[in-house]
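Data's thin. Show one?
=====
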Amino acid sequence: MMPSAVKSLKVTYKPVNEENTFTSGDRVSGEVSLELAKNCSINALWVKFKGKAEVLWTEDYGDHRATHHSKDKNMPSSFKGVAGEIVYLLEAKLSRSVRRPTKDSTEINFVSKETGTIDPELMKPQHKSKDKKLKVFNSGRVAMDVKLQRTVFFQGEGLQFRARIQNNSSRPIKLKYCFYRKHTFLAKRNQHVNTEDILKEVGEPIPPSAEEKFTRVVPIPSDVEPSIDNCSIIKVEYGLRVYLDVKYAFDPKIKFPIVILSARRVPAASGFNR
């Protein structure tokens, strides 16, 4: 076998910030290093930035795989999950006659950013109520009225909600809440869902025939990935689940959808209407 004239091909880029992330509008710059063992003819040297989303998981009756390529300017953030990933690469490709192309690539961490103004509907407070009549080993009714500050939050922010709990039952109850994340992977008509609780809290017991009001702030970790709703095969969603721990009964619960955006933008202060 004849030794190759190409000893090495290497592509690198220059970070634009301390987090080593890129977003829409950033310029990717770097260099391509080519080392040759001898003189040779080159047809072309290509450098390109590309992205790909792919899902793959195995079930008892076979594998499920799907790949998504998009030229949409509204690109989803980089992502890696248990059954799929969204990857961006800076790739160099050297083409020569009657030879296999020589390639090298390096991964780019891309973070999608909100363009323009945020949908005003996402900035409005959410409000839901739930009540339940208890039977068998418990009697009376329990009820909760919950208000959430808004729908959209940013990495590292505090998610604030208020709750009014009425315990007209014969036993103590507890307020519980959970901030959770849901990954959905889609391949044709099949899907794989992975849900993870990020933070769970339990309040103090509320005695029978009592009403209490709570204000809670749930810290959103600064390293959670942003929500993804602009990819056809991978979805990243968040939610807040507020529920009452009632003995010997199904726990009444309320769920709020949550949208998490990159911390590169912080919204104007927003609170509850009095």
